[in-house]
Amino acid sequence: MIGFLAQTPTPSPTPFVDATWWEQHGWALAISLVLALALSLLSRRWVRRSRKRAKVSGDDVEGRRLRRVATVVGLVAGTVVVVAWLVFAMTMLAAVGVSIGPIIASAGIAGVALGFGAQTLVRDTISGLFIFLEGQFDVGDVVDLTTGSATVSGTIEGLTLRITTVRQYDGSLSIVPNGTIEITNNRTRGWGRAVVDVRVALAEDADRIREVLEELFDELEHQEPFQEWLRKRPQVLGVTQITDTAKVIRVAAETQPSNRIDAERLLRERISARIAERGIKVPPIVPGAVPPPAG
Fold first, then answer.
1. In the CATH hierarchy, which top-level class contains the domain 192-277?
2. pTM above 0.85?
3. Which is nearest to 159 in space by CA: 195, 130, 185, 193?
4. What's the pLDDT tens digit per position in 30-68?
5. Domain extents in the chain
6. What CATH topology corresponds to 122-186?
7. 59, 53, 61: which is closest to 229 by C-alpha?
């Protein structure tokens, strides 16, 4: 028993309390940690500032450029932060005596295993890469993203290689994996079309209503905010449907893409006021009845 105790090795002191260990590795750890923290804070501020500029941008060339810049900044900042913390982790492992050579050498094997074991992650990443390279949408764009289970509508708040974050109209934040996006409807590119259906009584003369609306549109064409929102003057397309109680007259206007919904709302308001002012009769509202779709 005495001989066994004599042969038992004395445990070596913990390296973290050894002054020599701190002299050898302390500076490297401190620099890598400070660098990772600084890059995280600076990148977060950089992303926040670029997204704020993109949010208030318009639909002109400068606005699209700002939204594209915000998208690129988000992707670059995320990559830089991941690399910085990875360098700190490798530095820590090397300091505590873990050989990082085999870890780096096994990266290829790990990549193959990742391809077989995490196919969804690989699919999302590849899809996100093509979304970015093709410029399908940028931060600040208003989109409809159709997935296999639902359609998510709202404003793009963030884009990474794996996920897209969408702020919906009710304020909720939706996270959409890029690999699940099947169809993208971008409402902030090119131009939009505001469509308003005007329901009037069957006895009303369609030509008279057209004259009233054309007179209204002559006035609105040079008024704000229509002068800024509209790309072309509103047009009366004519009667698109006749029901048992009403005629449906469709009005269409080419708008700036981000102002389509606002233009539709304001056009309805102005048209309703002008119809009431001119004494044009509207169809009676039957309690519980749902108006049939126009067109």
1. alpha beta
2. no
3. 130
4. 888 888 888 888 888 888 888 777 776 666 666 767 777
5. 14-105, 122-186, 192-277
6. SH3 type barrels. (2.30.30)
7. 59
